[in-house]
Amino acid sequence: MASSLTLTTLRLAPLLSSTCTLLFAHDQHFFLTLLNRPETRKQSTNLIPTYFRLFFRQGVVVVLGFITISTATAIANLYTSPANLRANRTYWWYAAGGLQSLAHLAYVPFVAPHVQTLVDAKEDMNPNDVLDSWLTVNFRRFLTTDLGAWIAFGVAALGSVRAV
User: Fold this and answer.
1) What are the transmembrane regions (predicted)?
2) In the predicted structure, residue 112 carries a pLDDT above the cut 90
């Protein structure tokens, strides 16, 4: 049987990693939106393609890492004392959080064209408009899958940690 500290850590891990995903998505939206504000929009036009290319290359690793941790620890929770999770009514919350974490990837077909356009930086495109489109999709993803996973893992952790 796992120690109380180990089990508590496992129960909290998906909430912690989904919190990181949520904060990262919020920060992306906040900081990239600053490039398209009326007072900075014109000056940022030439900067956006290079900035986004560098930003995305590193950011995608971070996001995929947090999604992997959230999903893997959700699955680990489902297999560690599932009877206890069912008794505490948290089993399905961990399952829902894991599915919401994976659902983040369902937005790839909606995000990828904007990313590709910004990375390719063709002369006939307006980087600010493309970034606006990406920000819209990213914000929807933040409000649905990222926030959904965080809420599910929060409910699961609250119900599970009290019982450990």
Assistant:
1) 55-79, 91-112, 142-161
2) yes
